[in-house]
Amino acid sequence: MARNTQVAADHNAPPITQILARFVAEHPSRGWSDAVDHEAHRTFLNWLGCAVGAARHEAADAALAAVSMLQPAPQATVLGRGERVDMASAALVNGITSHTFDFDDTHLKTIIHPAGPVASALLALAEHQGASGRALIDALVIGIDVACRLGNTVYPEHYDRGWHITGTTGMLGAAAGCARLLGLDVQQTAMALGIAASQPVGLREQFGTMTKPFHPGAAARAGLMSALLARHGFTSSPKAIEAPRGFAQVVSTKCAWNEVTDELGERFEISFNSYKPFACGIVIHPSIDACVQLREQGVRAEDVERIELKVHSLVLELTGKKEPADGLQGKFSVYHGCAAGLVFGHAAEEEFSDAVVTRPDMVALRRKVVATVDDRIDEASADVTAVLRDGRRVHVFVEHAIGSLQRPMSDAALEAKFHGLSDAVLGAAKTSELIRACWQVGGAADLKALAALARP
Question: What does DSSP say about strands 382-388 and 304-311: parallel, antiparallel, or unpaired?
């Protein structure tokens, strides 16, 4: 007996898989503006700092212990560690560490963290293949473009269904980037995209656990393996992305195909990448920013009766944990974020450690945060009022948080963030060398020297 489907399939979708394959394989090297190229270097720098910074986290220890059981060949560097493993395992582990602190880049239109899947796959492959830095940057721009354009196609319905979009589109971006780095032709690239399309990874249920950063790592590994399989003749459907039973129509009821095709090769989604000053879910940032501003206006935690917080419903849906039990859960607690902003005036990784999240004074302060939903407020904004014990009310409205496209982090701020993550792992002097190498990666003959700098 035939079953009815809830949503009619689109049998007339444009040949998205082939369109993207031709773009990936044939777009000229550095076929974009200097501003786009600089943003690619900013993205690479920010990704690498995040990965090195989390190198000693227990999630990295667990992941390395698991992949070591496979007896991998030493092909590529695990960033911030002494170990070298096979390409696929390096892509997995570096993808995990780059997202462990939730401090990585964000494509704000889709909430995709694009560098985790794409850069993690590319550096592992480039190190093993002896590829140039220019080839890596070209592949990074193109891979991120594929991931984010496909994200634009299916967001927000795809995300609302419970998929973690960083993983589910990230493996397509990683496959595209690796296909480009390997020099695959149009047909092989289409096969790589098709193989990747059968491997969406990531459920939002996992937020607040180690499995959340597993998603970009698994996407990096899947994308890399998809490109390697295609290189050796492995086949897939030539319309795996757009077919009625293909990736996009299976994982989303929204399929805006024009988001892939509009200005393809002219507008690059990496131009819309942003970088986090706070080590937590992006929707918390406006609230933290507001509390930092309250602190700068003289508000002190001990004087607070309550904090009245008004935010969009998505903020509480994603980060409404009132009583986080550890640091990972704290990254998804707007209540803890507000407390951290007010107490410390910043919210880097240390402010989301287990010790700080469970501190009695932090617990007491976050319980004074009264959050209400007001969908007239944009997802990227926050309205915060501190009600003080003496009856005074101090109000701050943040339309766009620091780190957003409207208030971007400077190159110097990204370098300071990198030092804050890496100095304890590599030392300040070596970190400075690594930062210089990141800025110059587009001109590097190969990635061996940069990879060596990223090992303690």
Answer: antiparallel
Distance CA 318, CA 305 (A): 26
Tell me which residue of 17, 396, 418 sits closest to 186, measured CA to CA. Answer: 17
| pLDDT tens string 291-345 | 999 999 999 999 999 999 999 999 999 999 999 999 989 999 999 999 999 999 9
Whether 183 is covered by a domain: the verdict is: yes
- Rounded alpha-carbon distances, angstroms, from residue 160 to 164, 165, 193: 9, 10, 24
Q: What is the pLDDT of residues 129-163, one digit of tens each?
A: 999 999 999 999 999 999 999 999 999 999 999 99
- Helix, strand or coil, per DSSP, at residue 233: coil
The partner residues of 307 in beta bridges, in order of sequence, read 369, 386
Calculate helix-pair angle for 211-231, 87-100, nearest 10 degrees.
Answer: 150
Whether the pLDDT of residue 7 is over 70: the answer is: no
**Domain match, 44 and 145 both:** yes
In this predicted model, what pLDDT tens digit does every residue of 404-423 receive, in sequence order?
999 999 999 999 999 999 99
Residue 223: which CATH number?
Answer: 1.10.4100.10
**List of residues 6+ apart from 402 with CB closer than 8 A:** 277, 285, 289, 409
212 and 289: one domain? no
Integer angstrom CA distances of residue 329 from 55, 107, 368: 19, 22, 18
The Cβ-side half-sphere exposure at 202, using a 13 Å CA radius, reads 31
pLDDT tens-place string over residues 208-226: 899 999 999 999 999 999 9
Token pair listed for 360: 């009695």
